[in-house]
Amino acid sequence: MIPGPGAEIKLGSIVVLKKGHPCGENKWEIVRFGVDCKIKCLGCGRIVLIDRLELKKAVKKILEVPASAGTDQENH
Ligand SMILES: [Zn+2]
Q: For the segment 14-69, what is each residue's pLDDT rounded down to a tens digit?
């Protein structure tokens, strides 16, 4: 799913940060989204802990957001 304007950062989103990882990649997956967030570098797989407010400030662009809110897996 391609996010439109106003897309929100949430669990599972793929984002580009203002500052990339030293490995050369600058795409990150949100693997935890709470007061503290964890983002995973898609280049090397390294997980970085970041404060939620810092994350919001650091995000330059949201590339992808998860298609579902995660509740439809319980429809059976
Ligand atoms: Zn990396």
A: 999 999 999 999 999 999 999 899 999 999 999 999 999 999 999 999 999 988 65
Q: What is the distance in A from the centroid of ligand 1 to the CA of 44?
A: 4
For the chain, which domains are there? 14-67 (2.30.30)
One-letter amino acid identity for 41?
A: C
C-alpha of residue 76 to centroid of ligand 1, in Å: 38
E-state strands within 1-76: 14-17, 28-33, 36-41, 47-51, 59-64
CA of 71 to the centre of ligand 1 (A): 31
